[in-house]
Amino acid sequence: MEKNKFLDDADKAQTMSCMSYLKCRLTHILLLSCCSLLFSSGLFASGCALPRIIVLEDPLTSKEHLELGVAYEKKGEFDSAIKQYRLAAKKLSVAYLYLGNAHFQKNELHEAEESYKEAIKRDAHNADAYNNLAWLYYVKGNNLDEAERLAKKALELNPSKKNIYDDTLEKIREVKKP
Questions:
Q1: Contact criterion met (CB below 8 Å) for 112 and 145
Q2: Whether the Cβ atoms of residue 128 and residue 93 lie closer than 8 Å to each other
Q3: Class of 62-176 in CATH
Q4: Dist CA 81 CA 100 (whole Å)
Q5: In a 3-state reduction of DSSP, which class is residue 49?
Q6: For residues 148 and 173, is the Cβ–Cβ distance under 8 A?
Q7: pLDDT per position as a tens digit, 9-23
């Protein structure tokens, strides 16, 4: 039985993909070789830089930036998470909540407060933003009346998280007792 001499569409796509990859690798190798030659010959001045790739459009969606921020945050890379949350916040108001959380974990309480306030401003139904701002005030030990009001508002907006929001409210009330 003789093998088919013609490629089907899947084979063509795979072959084209491999060819594109090889072209890319060869270009990369050529670029490195040229740069190496220029450096070793002294023709590459110290003020010169390697060619840079400029991305004109962000290839990630706001949701993908948010997810990437969460991944960075889980790894403890808060600066990278903050950068991603800022990019996501251009289109997703919930990103301000995440931004506040990352700042809170870095003990950047002023930035966290501003982020939570912005989350509330952009989405007045975001119960977590109310609760987290209330918790921030509790941790700082100031604005406790406002903290209590915020925790109550969180409970009102999302009763399904009653255990979490009740805990915040109880802690605030304990500190407020004379």
A1: no
A2: no
A3: mainly alpha
A4: 11
A5: coil
A6: yes
A7: 444 444 444 444 444
User: What is the pLDDT confidence band of residue 38, given thresholds at 50, 70 and 90?
Assistant: very low
Helix locations, 76-157, DSSP H: 78-88, 95-105, 109-122, 127-140, 144-157
* Residue 117 scores a pLDDT above 70: yes
- Residue 70 CB burial class (10 angstroms; 0-12, 13-18, ≥19): middle
Residue 127 DSSP code: H
Residue 69's identity, in one-letter code, is G
At 5, list the tokens: 């001499």
Predicted pLDDT of residue 49: 61
Lowest mean pLDDT across 4-8, 50-54, 88-92, 124-128: 4-8
Overall average pLDDT of the 109-117 stretch: 98
How far apart (Å, rounded) are the C-alpha atoms in residues 128 and 86? 18
- For 169, how many CA atoms within 13 A lie in the half-sphere containing its CB? 15
pLDDT at 87 (0 to 100): 96
d(CA 170, CA 57): 47
Angstrom distance (rounded) from CA 44 to CA 35 = 8
